[in-house]
Write a structure and sequence with these properties.
Order of helices and strands: HHHHEHHEEHH
Shape: elongated
Strand content: 5-15%
Largest sheet: 3 strands, antiparallel
Distance between the termini: 24 Å
Oligomer: single chain
Number of helices: 8
Number of strands: 3
Helix content: over 70%
Radius of gyration: 20 Å
Structural class: mainly alpha
Strand order of the largest sheet: 1-3-2
Length: about 160
Amino acid sequence: MDKLDFYKHHIENSLIDIMNTRAQDNNFERQWLQLHIPNRDLQYAISQLSTLSLKLLQQVVALAPVSEDQLVEAMDLSFGVIAKNMNKLSRLGFVVKASPEQRKAVYQPTKVGTKVVAVQNQLSELLDKQHRELVDRYTPEQLSLIAAFLQDLQHSH
């Protein structure tokens, strides 16, 4: 079997499966959170959040009190994207402006926001454990080769 046939039969389908699964991750994370947070109002609020909003909430909890400028830097996103998502998190009760009278917004998580992040962290720990078990099967050299291949593949598309 030549290299292209090997790629098509042993690698390409796996990559397509990974991409399809990744596209559904937002639903998975929200569903997991909803299962582990029994409050119906909170479940509804979580259903309104994107993956980006959930990641942003984690950053707010980790860095609080945190300004929008600090979030722009930490997340490597535009000010507009940060502001839009922070407004949504604030409207849904996950964060509050620490000093509403300040020209530049500084945010703190609410108790509810902190609780959601604690549950997110439980999921992260489970996924980290699974990923650790996966990468432990390979040598550093093999992992470097896999990473290089995936980067080359990404740059060629």
